[in-house]
Design goal:
With about 230 residues, the protein is of the alpha/beta class. It has one domain: Rossmann fold. It contains eight helices and ten strands. The protein has helices spanning about 40-50, 75-90, 100-110, 130-140, 155-160, 165-170, 190-200, 215-230; strands at about 1-10, 15-20, 25-30, 55-60, 95-100, 115-120, 145, 150-155, 175-180, 205-210. It has an eight-stranded mixed beta sheet, sandwiched between helices. A hairpin with a 3-residue loop joins strand 7 (about 145) and strand 8 (about 150-155). Helix 2 (about 75-90) packs across helix 3. The radius of gyration is 17 Å and the shape is globular. The relative contact order is 0.13. The model has no long low-confidence stretch (mean pLDDT about 95).
Length: about 230
């Protein structure tokens, strides 16, 4: 069974969330990437999670999908606030955080407020320099537009620069698993390989040879199989 919720965040704005129910105290919160939404592959992942006995919550960050707000007004801080509002709304006992691409950056910096059981990262943005290609355009033109209509301006980087990967690592004391495509040209595999060296915790890095930032259906199936096997054996 799946329930739809509109969760108040701040200033009267709401985020749209879908809860795939399971009869357990385990909850996975799925955070999508920079300019995507909770549908498509996230629906499939949440359905699989529910089948595996996890309550699954997929939601749209503000400025995306069914949630309120304009994309240009959003930041890393606003995305963290959206995730925190979803977790507070459901009040889970055991929390697992999934982050894809920029969603990986969100869960990395959001986890310190909660007692998180594990971080699951897919092709994650972790180091701040991954966003330099966007910053250079903003510095030159004032704005940068991605995916046709996802625009940011200097406010995004004013907020972004207040976060540090190295400082966030101090709060990562739970198991971490990272899935990354070997041919990812959006966020290079080497970024995840370098990040593993910085974590002072149990980390499993899984490289999918020949896969891009968005993986094939076959790779996605293998990823989920491995993920739930890993979770079962924590």
């Amino acid at each position: 069974m799946t329930d739809k919720h509109f969760i108040e965040v701040e200033d009267g704005e709401e985020v749209a969330a879908a809860h795939h129910k399971a009869s357990s105290d385990d909850w996975i919160f799925f955070c999508h990437g920079y300019g995507s939404d909770k549908e498509g592959s996230y629906r499939k992942r949440a359905e699989r999670a529910s089948e595996e006995g996890f309550n699954a919550v997929r939601f749209d960050f503000r400025g995306n999908g069914e949630s309120d707000g304009e994309f240009i007004d959003q930041s890393l801080s606003s995305r963290i606030a959206d995730l925190e509002a979803c977790i507070d709304f459901f009040g889970p006992e055991r929390i697992f955080l999934w982050g894809m691409s920029f969603g990986g950056k969100v869960v990395l910096h959001a986890n310190e407020r909660f007692d998180v059981e594990a971080l699951i990262l897919k092709s994650p943005v972790l180091f701040n320099n991954e966003m330099e290609k966007f910053r250079s355009v903003v510095d030159e033109k004032g704005t940068y537009t991605h995916f046709g209509d996802k625009t940011i301006d200097e406010r995004f980087f004013e907020d972004f620069d207040s976060y540090s990967f190295e400082e966030a690592c101090e709060y990562v004391d739970m198991p971490v698993i990272i899935f990354h495509g070997g041919d990812d040209s959006t966020v290079h595999f080497e970024s995840s390989a370098d990040a593993v060296k910085e974590f002072d915790t149990e980390v499993l890095l899984r490289k999918f040879e020949g896969e891009e930032h968005s993986m094939s259906d076959d790779a996605e199936e293998k990823l989920l199989d491995e993920m739930f096997y890993w979770l079962e054996n924590l």
